[in-house]
Amino acid sequence: MDRVYLSKEEMPRSWFNIVPYLPEPLDPPLDPETKEPISPEKLLTIFPEPLIEQEVSTQELIEIPEEVMDILSLWRPTPLHRARKLEEYLQTPAKIFYKNESVSPPGSHKPNTAVAQAYYNKISGVKRLTTETGAGQWGSALSFATQYFDLECRVYMVRVSYNQKPYRRILMETWKGEVIPSPSPYTNAGRQFYEKDPNHPGSLGIAISEAIEEAATREDTKYSLGSVLNHVLLHQTVIGLEAKKQMEKEGLYPDVIIGAVGGGSNFAGLSFPFLKDKLIGEKPDLEVVAVEPTACPTLTKGEYRYDYGDTVGLTPLIKMYTLGKDFVPQPIHAGGLRYHGDAPLVCKLYNLGYISAVAYDQRKVFEAGLIFARTEGIVPAPESAHAVKKAIDEALKCKETGEEKVILFNLSGHGYFDLSAYDKFLRGELQ
Amino acid sequence: MDRVYLSKEEMPRSWFNIVPYLPEPLDPPLDPETKEPISPEKLLTIFPEPLIEQEVSTQELIEIPEEVMDILSLWRPTPLHRARKLEEYLQTPAKIFYKNESVSPPGSHKPNTAVAQAYYNKISGVKRLTTETGAGQWGSALSFATQYFDLECRVYMVRVSYNQKPYRRILMETWKGEVIPSPSPYTNAGRQFYEKDPNHPGSLGIAISEAIEEAATREDTKYSLGSVLNHVLLHQTVIGLEAKKQMEKEGLYPDVIIGAVGGGSNFAGLSFPFLKDKLIGEKPDLEVVAVEPTACPTLTKGEYRYDYGDTVGLTPLIKMYTLGKDFVPQPIHAGGLRYHGDAPLVCKLYNLGYISAVAYDQRKVFEAGLIFARTEGIVPAPESAHAVKKAIDEALKCKETGEEKVILFNLSGHGYFDLSAYDKFLRGELQ
Prior knowledge:
- The structure is a homodimer of 431-residue chains.
- The first copy, chain A, is α/β, with parallel strands linked by helices and 431 residues long.
- Chain A folds into two domains: 3-8 and 75-108 and 237-426, Rossmann fold; 14-63 and 110-230, Rossmann fold (3-Layer(aba) Sandwich).
- Helix content of chain A is 40%, strand content 17%.
- Chain A is built from 18 helices and 15 strands.
- Chain A has helices at residues 40-43, 49-56, 66-72, 84-90, 111-123, 137-146, 159-164, 166-174, 188-194, 204-217, 230-236, 238-249, 265-279, 298-301, 344-351, 362-375, 382-401, 419-426, and strands spanning 2-4, 14-16, 61-63, 80-82, 95-100, 128-133, 152-158, 178-182, 221-223, 256-260, 287-293, 303-308, 317-322, 356-360, 406-411.
- In chain A, a hairpin with an 8-residue loop joins β12 (303-308) and β13.
- In chain A, α12 packs across α13 (265-279).
- Chain A is globular.
- The model of chain A has no long low-confidence stretch (mean pLDDT 95).
- The interface between A and B is large, with 40 and 40 residues.
């Protein structure tokens, strides 16, 4: 097993912002009332000033505060592994590498931004954060992060997950998060669904509406989002910056970079520092592939237009590939990929042809996840198994062509809270 | 957060055997039939030759095979952390360090020996391994390890855990382990309980009897034990060997070393390489503390005598502190500590006064576990939380006396599969 190390001293000291390298500017978010570009002042009701500055920044490098580095270094730098056992199993001439973000205490890449967001809210005088969570990865990352900065954390958790995933709920509570099944009776957004049906299963869109409403109406409270926005993707670039150094240590540069896309943050986190080289013309042949579920084919089948980020329509309108804010995906196990839209930065780069996308069926994805667990030993999160599937397909293509491509993918999280889905797959009961 | 790194090159190349440093020889295991010292030939029916050689070896250093190093390096060297957030919370002048064994794919220290045992069985021509598991840590470690060496793995899992901990069962199956609720109808040992009650809750002692019987009666099958025996403790010394190098990098040597004791393997793994210094008189004041639950107080209340390792009486008799082979501990959540005996090596050193022991009540242990989760961010396994509790107590003693002691404990595993126990504790429902 090859694991490429970085020392603490080799951790990146700044995040990488891809915005200055975009061939054309991002389309601005629009005010949901006026449909005009939204003013930073209006965003201040839900986000603290330093995060809004990052959201609109055109600076390439943004320094990571010491206080954030301190917490990240509990599990960062994360390992980069060469997947030799998988290569042997596939009998491929390709070299497969994966960045292992599953080693964080919450089990995914999510705390990379949760810690940063908690810090900036803290220094801005905020006392409470609200957020939403589907499968629970983001809610547990934010609960984990807020406790280091003495912030209260309220998580609106999609009710169907609240009932089906008690372990994720308990993990949040162990880290002092307050978990509310959504739709709830505590917000206007939730009440309209809750009053019709107190057992309403909920959706990510409704939970976002509840969390934003609460932040907008309470002085001491801001809202925190786990993906999609520019500043969230920015915080995730530590993944790619580390991976780049680690690949350099191996004397290699990837030919193909792969990440699963729900909102886009783990994908962007790994790929953006490499994509810079493609944007400046140094690596014109670099392939960057976004993988999504066929049940929620945002990039592969969505429309590129302005849409709301939530169901009720409280968020700014953002230009993205979207399946429509009312789209309700099948209840696949990769809960983190069940979002109707995608990050504007990812969408722009996809629209301009710098990124390609592919969609896979859930069963194929679990098949790949199981192969990975049985060769490399780590059980991938269903989300991450999408990236595994594409990496395997690329490696098998190399087997046919004889090419010795260097494949790099993001193992964004482990599947230890998703074992019931693997159980269903093993028993042939997965749809 | 301070994390002390070791590079792959700094990994120990040999295991450390404490036997040559014992002030008096170990009492030999006795044949259950003749009550005479058992012959190595008889042990060959259940263990392969290289492991029997290690079991009786008096050589200080035993080389770790390349094939074992290769798999261990997937997660080793493990981090040594300075628990600064915990120190701040306790306002103690003590320096608290913990070795983080929770980062392995099965989530504990157990694969350190599982990989070695799978390897030695493989090169000895064995095709199948049997074992038992209580809470599931050991069964998942062995399932994880055997898949790298194309061995079949059958795990007899105590039925009450099989029913209550489906995630652990699924994890084993994901790694191709075959999991059988025990007592089962497949062995004589199991049948006598199963036929009276097909829903018999089972016990670790019965499951051991089943696994050993199967190994003893099938040519292609050997038995694998996750703790207690000398060779198991030997394989775990990578923990302490790494920790010693890491402490040296910090320019420190521990005053107190703490580990939870079920069978003794994580405790011995961390402490033995340091205990050598006490045995040779270089560190006469080093305190080494074994922590056990009051519900299973083997060292603190057991008798030092020969006893069987299992319930039915199939194992050799071994000299150890024991609560009696028929002792049934309360169903506490630290399943890995519910064993009636302890490793002969640990018992000998305890009997000679080189080790001390303390027992804690389950509620105090979970209180400590929660403090750790909310300061250091990692949710400890209930077993490991015993060590956390003692570390906290030591640190609070330092707060009173003003001593700046260096405390080192073993975080032997994470508690992500034990969250329902934390849930009960948070709700005040834990007994």
